[in-house]
Amino acid sequence: MTAIRPFVLQRIDHVVLRVGDPERSLAFYRDVLGCDVVKRRDDLGLIHLRCGASMIDLVDVQGKLGLAGGAAAGEQARNVDHVCLRIEPFDETALVTHLAAHGLKPLGPAHDNFGAEGDGPSLYLRDPDGNTIELKGPSRPDRKP
């Protein structure tokens, strides 16, 4: 017999990323992706960033919280597969141009992926610590779940 849950899932509230250089990561998430700093907890090595309705928290791997997680992530030791950020509009040419202006390039061309709203275009890139970021556009009208 399955118990009835006393809650309903709403959305992702926040994602916490362990980072090697908080200021470099802050510049990426603020300047490239458009996140805003909501709060800093320098005593913990923690920066809270607004990402639309959600949050991305950056934790310094050398800070109080980060030291509890062991070594920093790398190509062979990732602590997150990827974080998907829903964006609109989705204009691949404009995105690639924007990324290039920041010295970045996507991991490949955009392609349709399934997400919370159905199938729609996605473009992948890496943040300064090697975490994969998916920029996800709106679902195609004929491809909604």
From TrEMBL:
SUPFAM superfamilies: Glyoxalase/Bleomycin resistance protein/Dihydroxybiphenyl dioxygenase. Residues 116-145 are annotated as: Disordered. The keyword Phosphoprotein does not apply. Residues 11-138 form the VOC domain. Keywords: Lyase. The keyword Transport does not apply. InterPro entries: Glyas_Bleomycin-R_OHBP_Dase, Glyas_Fos-R_dOase_dom, GlyoxalaseI/FosfomycinResist, VOC_core. This is Lactoylglutathione lyase. The lineage of its organism: Bacteria, Pseudomonadati, Pseudomonadota, Gammaproteobacteria, Lysobacterales.
